Amino acid sequence: MPTREIPREEWNAFFETFSKQHEGWLVTVEVLGRDIGAQEEAHELPLVGITADLNGSDADAISIIVGKAAEDHITHTVTGAAHVRLEQAESGADEALQIEGADGATTLLRFRFAMLPELVDGIVAE
User: Fold this and answer.
1) What CATH number corresponds to the domain at position 24?
2) Residue 34 lies in a domain
3) Percent of the chain with pLDDT over 70
4) N vs C: which end of the chain shows fewer Cβ within 10 Å?
């Protein structure tokens, strides 16, 4: 599966487009780190959106928001974000998003199904 690095200067535009394309898609969010192993933060919840707050390399923060109802939303924030990588299937469908923090921990957002957005337009469950 091809992996593409998203340059820091493109993060805001990338996350805005990515969030619009995948809003409501079921995702699992995991944090992988040497000290903590693999920790699941959310399991197959609808993606609400992803935002980047760029304040300088050590203070950059990326927030992933998932959940069904606003009062049930879960927000996972990666502080000191250093790298963003998009994993795609051979078909070009997005499979996962990797966000690496300055501490070396990686947050992995995986889709339940890898599909091209145009194939699911209008059929995302409420």
Assistant:
1) 2.70.180
2) yes
3) 87
4) C
